[in-house]
Specification:
Elements: H1 2-41, E1 43-48, E2 54-58, E3 61-65, E4 69-74, E5 78-84, E6 87-93, E7 102-106, E8 113-121, H2 126-133, E9 136-139, E10 145-148, E11 150-153, E12 157-161, E13 182-190, H3 191-198, E14 206-207
Parallel strand pairs: 1-7, 8-14
Antiparallel strand pairs: 1-4, 2-3, 2-5, 5-6, 7-12, 8-11, 8-13, 9-10
Length: 213
């Protein structure tokens, strides 16, 4: 009997050690992801998509950006001040949400950007794809309230949760769980890049999934 109890205790101890190790691994993964997310969220992209060089001040520091260029800087959360062409604008960078794919742009020229819901799905009709990806408020051709897969942005400071930033290409394929049949990835475009991406006659893009699980 004692031998049986000892074996049971040893087995329980081994299980606890294994469970503890698994929990520790999970915690390390979560913490690592959080640190990576916070590190990326601390960065902001100053972007100049125009044909002219621009000069401005951010929090009292002078910057010059050549045409069609950008610069990545560290920008802390809180209030900041931008001075451009005699106009002073104050904006606030929010703290990122837990494990959020936070992305921010400083847009001195107030140029147009587009946040687009790219849908990847299996056996989806164009109507289904449009309904599932249209999560942003917009207006239809008659000016009535509607839902669209894109959101237009032109603020001095843009902060959004995205999967792909300005210079990151969307993949041709992504993994899609069988239980959902589709997934949506958010991509942020410069206005001109979005027009080229969509094409003159296209309204939406439906991409094929890979390794449907």
């Amino acid at each position: 009997m004692n031998e049986f109890l000892n074996e049971a205790k040893a087995g329980a101890k081994a299980w606890l050690v294994k469970a503890g190790t698994s929990l520790a691994v999970i915690l390390l993964v979560v913490i690592g992801a959080r640190v990576y997310s916070s590190s990326k969220s601390a960065e902001s992209v100053i972007d100049n998509p125009t044909e002219e060089a621009i000069t401005f001040k951010l929090d009292g520091k002078d910057y010059t950006l050549e045409p069609k260029t950008s610069q990545v800087i560290k920008l802390s959360k809180g209030e900041h001040t931008l001075e451009y062409l005699g106009e002073t604008t104050k904006f606030t960078k929010k703290a990122p949400k837990f494990l959020d794919t936070d992305y921010s742009i400083i847009n001195p020229t107030k140029s147009l950007y587009v946040l687009y819901n790219e849908i990847y799905g299996e056996n989806l009709t164009e109507t289904e794809a449009d309904e599932k990806s249209s999560t942003y408020d917009c207006e239809d051709d008659q000016g009535k309230p509607d839902k669209c897969p894109r959101k237009f942005l032109s603020d001095v400071f843009i902060q959004e949760s995205v999967d792909y930033g300005l210079d990151e290409a969307t993949p041709d394929n992504v993994d899609v769980a069988k239980s959902t049949r589709y997934t949506i990835k958010k991509k942020l475009f410069r206005g001109d890049d979005f027009s080229k991406y969509m094409g003159a006659d296209s309204e939406d893009v439906i991409l094929e999934p890979v390794e449907v699980k």
